């Protein structure tokens, strides 16, 4: 049975052997035709976000990639 899939921005010039009409366009593909493009993130089932799950970083990874903060410089003691 054929299902509808939305093309993502990750798709190349061709999707499932067809010329890519552009991100956001919808193709009707069989399960077999959709296997590889789904793995590549080139398509998502219609109604699902076009942001591929692999492209979303877990919050812990985002924090680990942030550079460490330098300690605040101490203010010189005033001689009052």
Question: Any overview of this molecule?
Answer:
- The chain has 80 residues and is α+β, with helices and mostly antiparallel strands.
- The chain has two helices and five strands; from the N terminus they run ββββαβα.
- It has helices spanning 31-40, 59-65, and strands at residues 3-7, 14-15, 18-19, 26-29, 43-45.
- The strands form two sheets. The protein has a three-stranded antiparallel sheet, with helices on one face.
- A hairpin with a 2-residue loop joins strand 2 and strand 3.
- It is rod-shaped, with a radius of gyration of 23 Å.
- It starts with a strand and ends in a 15-residue tail after the last helix.
- The model has no long low-confidence stretch (mean pLDDT 82).
Distance, first to last CA: 84 Å
Instruction: State the secondary-structure class.
Output: alpha+beta
Query: Which radius of gyration do the C-alpha atoms yield?
Result: 23 Å
The amount of helix comes to 10-25%
Q: Main beta sheet, described?
A: 3 strands, antiparallel
**Number of discrete helical segments:** 2
Key words describing this protein structure:
single chain, two-stranded antiparallel sheet, alpha+beta, 20% strand, 21% helix, 80 residues, 2 helices
